[in-house]
Specification:
Blueprint (H helix, E strand, L loop, with lengths): L6 H10 L17 E5 L8 H5 L30 H8 L19 E3 L10 H6 L12 H11 L7 H8 L2 E5 L4 H9 L4 H24 L4 E5 L8 H6 L15 H24 L4 E5 L1 H10 L15 E2 L18 E2 L16 H13 L3 E2 L4
Parallel strand pairs: 1-2, 1-3, 3-4, 4-5
Antiparallel strand pairs: 5-8, 6-7
Length: 370
């Protein structure tokens, strides 16, 4: 996520509507002509829905998509995601999912993200004994392959690609969270997972480097969310005593782990900036943006507690793995915008909107997006 010259115009326009929904600021002038996105279920706009029957029991069913689209679209939320709000803020159309883009004009961008995707390839999970947990084999390297496949339809020479992609925004993630999720849900310890962090973070920065070599100049690389605030983790990996929880009620150790991943990722991004000074490589602090509304939900318009799930099957956090959102036995709240947590793992449209706003206008992108 980044840009030049018309910057002052764009910044002024966006700042004027900083108190409004990002989607209402879609008329703001932008100097991005396209946007390309990679990642997992935080960013997927339909690829898992097309590629994997597993999703038909979950994100392919109502109430997914109930708020904005009024139907399931393959997004793991009640409505739009961060990638959707950013596209609208820059005057671009919502990015079509790559596997749904055949016959469509994708010159303004396409989304390669896949729900359940990992930064690492399947052999990594075979090695750690967690391959049976994978939702999909469409990892980050596969998504980069899709980008290479579609590239000739966008530009046909090194010069034209350099010019075309210099006006494009690349969103590289969020990706890597599932690498740890699969490990944790397989019974791996936090200490086990910490040994994976340098490898996972390197996979993300290696992908970023490949895109730079392909001509990308403006790239946003998000960090991981505070998984210790996820109702799935709170339910499936509860603490043993009150000291395991912070003042919000999130699990300290899992949040510390997410921050550790983010710190390692930022170190690797700093090295990448030194190597490619011509590229604008921005780190998006999803963790900080999410913790801001977890700590002060009412300040962001959320009337329900940040740990309670809107769509779920009961329990203290309204998360039940046997009756997850979209499955018989689950119920959906009447007003998702009052909640930050959608289904126990993913956030509501309102929460993604808050993160997008924070990335656009707040201190949560380094260097600053605008």
């Amino acid at each position: 996520m980044a840009f030049p010259n018309k910057l002052s115009v764009l910044a002024a326009a966006l700042l004027l509507c900083s108190l409004a929904r990002v989607s209402q600021c879609g008329g703001a002038q932008s100097n991005y002509t396209s946007m390309f996105s990679f990642g997992d279920s935080l960013t997927d706009t339909g690829n898992l829905l097309v590629s994997n029957a597993l999703s038909n029991a979950i994100v392919g069913r109502f109430p997914y998509g109930m708020t904005y689209f009024h139907r399931p679209t393959g997004r793991c939320s009640d409505g739009r995601l961060v990638v959707d709000f950013l596209a609208q803020a820059f005057g671009l159309p919502l990015l079509p999912a790559y596997l749904q883009s055949e016959g469509k004009d994708v010159r303004q961008g396409v989304n390669f993200a896949v729900g359940g995707a990992t930064a690492m390839d399947p052999p990594f999970f075979e090695e750690i004994g967690a391959s049976d947990k994978l939702w999909t084999n469409l990892s980050l390297s596969v998504q980069l392959g899709w980008f290479d496949k579609i590239k000739p339809s966008l530009c046909n020479s090194a010069k034209s690609c350099k010019e075309y992609f210099s006006r494009s925004l690349f969103l590289v993630g969020e990706i890597g969270g599932n690498d740890y999720n699969y490990a944790f849900f397989k019974g791996k310890t936090l200490d086990d997972a910490k040994t994976y962090v340098p490898t996972v973070a390197s996979a993300v920065t290696d992908a970023t480097e490949k895109l730079i070599k392909a001509g990308a100049r403006h790239l946003v690389v998000p960090g991981n969310l505070p998984i210790g605030c996820s109702s799935a983790y709170l339910t499936l990996h509860p603490g043993k005593n009150s000291s395991d929880y912070d003042s919000v009620g999130c699990l300290k150790t899992y949040n510390d782990f997410a921050q550790h991943h983010n710190e390692v990722l930022q170190q690797k991004l700093r090295a990448l900036r030194r190597k490619y000074p011509q590229a604008r490589i921005m780190y998006a602090d999803y963790y900080g943006a999410a913790m801001a509304f977890a700590k002060n939900p009412k300040q962001f318009g959320f009337t329900e507690g940040p740990l309670k799930t809107c769509c779920g099957g009961g329990g203290p956090y309204n998360f039940n793995p046997v009756a997850s959102c979209g499955v018989r036995g689950s119920k959906v709240c009447t007003d998702p915008s009052a909640y930050t947590n959608w289904d126990g793992v993913h956030l509501t449209e309102a929460a993604y909107h808050a993160i997008a706003d924070s990335i656009l206008h707040g201190p949560y992108t380094s260097p600053r997006l605008l």
